[in-house]
Amino acid sequence: MATITRRSVDVVIVGGGWAGSIMAKELTEAGQRVVMLERGGERSTAADGAYPGSLDELEGNYRFKIFQKLQKTTVTIRNNISQTALPYRQLAAFLPGEGVGGAGLHWSGVHLRIAPDDLTLRSTVISKYGKSFIPEGMNLQDYGVTYAELEPFFDKAEKVFGTSGEAYTVNGKVVGNGNVFAPDRSDHFPLPPLKDVTGAHLFRKAAAEAGYHPYAIPAANASRQYTNPYGAQMGPCNFCGYCSGYACYMYSKASPNVNILPVLRRNKLFEIRPNSTVLHVTLDSTKTRATGVTYLDEKGNEVIQSAELVILAAFQFNNVHLMLVSGIGKPYDPVAGTGVVGRNFVYQNISTTTAWLDPSVWTSQFIGTGGGGVAFDDFNSENFDHGPLGFIGGSPVWVNQAGVKAIAAAKAGGPPGTPRWGSAWKSGMIDTYKHAVRMDAHGSNMAYRDVFLDLDPTWKDAFGRPLLRMTFDWKDNDIRMNRYVVGKIAAVTKAMGARQTHLGMKEFGQPFDTRFYQTTHLGGGAVMGSDPATSALNRYLQCWDVSNVFVIGSNAFPQGTGYNPTGMVAALAYWSAHHIRTTYLKNPGPLVPA
Amino acid sequence: MPPSLLSRRNLLQTLAGATALTACARLAEAAPPESAYRPVFFTTDEWRFLHAACDRLIPHDASGPGAIELGVPEFIDRQMETPYAYGALWYMQGPHVTGPANLGYQLPYTPRDIYRRGIAGARALALQMHNAEFASLDAATRDAFLTELETGTHQFGDLPASTFFGHLLGNTQEGAFADPIHGGNKGLGGWAMTGFPGARADFMDWVDQYGREYPLGSVSISGETI
């Protein structure tokens, strides 16, 4: 195939998801000529979310219609440094997206701000409990940015996403029945909270009875029709239950495809090129400046696209992979404890509890809205005293019913101990589907010295590049946190009047299992911070070593939080874009001296 | 045996090669409707095995219809012609190295390969253990044999029997509960027994009818409803 050189542009963006779309919108507003390269195909609600054909659970959730197909590339995974990592050959534990919209098209819509203490977790833990409270081998870090600095950008993102929710305080004044642990806000949510589904309704009552503080989960699923500040329109969510894995046919779930790209596509400064796989960022001879990217177009031609500014906005681990294969930043070495790219790879620590209610109560699990539900944060972040508990981190607990469909119900089966097939399975499964409520402890996962990303020595992608290698396992600190918080759910299911409860919790000594879905909330690997020795990016998500490369995504999280990442990713994108617009473009160079 | 059942049995034998004979005899009240479907991927012997296995994984019982009535074998056969069955959703590049189970599937076999090798292996194992084709065993013996595949340590070459069983079970569940556009869930029977409304997909006025049973039947993508 030929090598083609395309006309130089101001900005090239790798990835067509939330981060890339936000950056493209912001930078075209600043007059920059932007090209967005997306490895997957074009996607739209009209084509991918058409009613009724798109409401196909088999295609959506089991043939991964809008998720990544692993045929061309994947990662390898091992539990520890002494093992041989093996390819993640079938989608299971986590489900990255592919195509225009990225994970922002298949996500559910939970849209949370970060807990302020999580941004300064190292400082907060040391000041409250002392430095010796941090376990040996845990790389606890601060983000290098405060909630007060990010607040305007959380606010902006909520207005773009059309987020439904209820505030607790606005400008320091109690205004509503929102999360009492939530940080102060400069404004209300743009839309009122969604209705509670049955499970969430019962959970709200029972959690309050147990002495906790339930609130409506902020959801980027529109509770009413809405026009965002860009002029993009959303329809009201009808609780259809086809959120996660689907291109919402109601235009109710926020996505780059609905909330940003329709406006960008009309802008002459913006061009999107789907089916364009970026192979690497090209650097000049000093290795401190990017000249653009090299990518494969849909015909297999190698294309050289030069640009003044390169934004990596692919999925978390793809950003890290691109940095490693491009030679941006020093790769992390877990033995020496040096280098930063691949350091502080984190996941999320989730377990599901099930309560079986009286057979006269129908829980209608098929009704759902992806981001909606009811949570309590009494055991999240630093909302409780960790001193006597001896672990770091926490979990919100919630009923977040995105719509459980029939195949998922069949595979989930009945109560523990029920066979996986046959008549006992059938009756147990049907009873569970009709009368049970599921709730999650959706917890943080801390960063550790021996949990990291690097390049695999053996397996390659279809383009000849080494696969990214994940070295990951659950650690005692996080298992203890999970078990503590899940234990607190027992009071809720009791108050619900459950006839049976299964408290789902992590077990000590059980390795991370790639075969079962847990969550797609991966983080870290190219983290933000104040110290180039422990972070790959400065607090504006700019590479310390190559100042015209910014890396936007959950890769920037120094450790996991109990919350879903998209709200934080969107706020960080707006934060970074603001500083590019107001400072960097006027005088390109490092925004923070290294 | 009533003549009507006998004739139905004969019909089924003619149509599908002695399909699920014992199941048919057992389900005197609700025998599976005959199917005109002819498998594309599965051979006659494989097709018999598939029926006899699916019939036990989701049996017809008081909870509702079984896999045969729901058209699960047709679903699986049709799936075998999709990109999924050719391994297009999986990373298939070598080297293929065995490792701990929790690191996931590592064999070079696509779903089509897994069925071909798995059914051959299971049939041979049944002949060895029972001196009979799996499909001709009675229900209790088939259950015990399937449990052996599920939990035992049998290997069909380098394919663990439990890996084959896992695929068979997963596809059987998919076939019983997926939209009927894919060939299974005949008559929306899978959805009727679970109360899943399918593509109805609008619960605006039912969200806060707390604890009540949803009153409307299921609807499929093609508009079939119950």
Automatic annotation (TrEMBL), chain A:
UniProt cross-references to Gene3D superfamilies, sorted A to Z: FAD/NAD(P)-binding domain
Keyword Oxidoreductase: yes
Domain Glucose-methanol-choline oxidoreductase C-terminal: 455-573
Glucose-methanol-choline oxidoreductase N-terminal domain ranges (all copies): 229-346
Origin: domain of life: Bacteria
Span of domain FAD-binding: 9-44
Spans traversing the lipid bilayer: none
Keywords assigned by UniProt, alphabetized: FAD, Flavoprotein, Oxidoreductase
Xref: InterPro entries: FAD-bd, FAD/NAD-bd_sf, GMC_OxRdtase_N, GMC_OxRtase_C
The family this protein is said to belong to: Belongs to the GMC oxidoreductase family.
Protein name stated in the entry: FAD-binding protein
Source organism of the structure: Acetobacter musti
Organism ancestry: Bacteria, Pseudomonadati, Pseudomonadota, Alphaproteobacteria, Acetobacterales
From TrEMBL, chain B:
One Pfam family of this chain: Gluconate_2-dh3
InterPro entries assigned to the protein according to its UniProt record, in alphabetical order: Gluconate_2DH_su3 (IPR027056), TAT_signal (IPR006311)
Protein name as catalogued: Gluconate 2-dehydrogenase subunit 3 family protein
Top-level taxonomic group: Bacteria
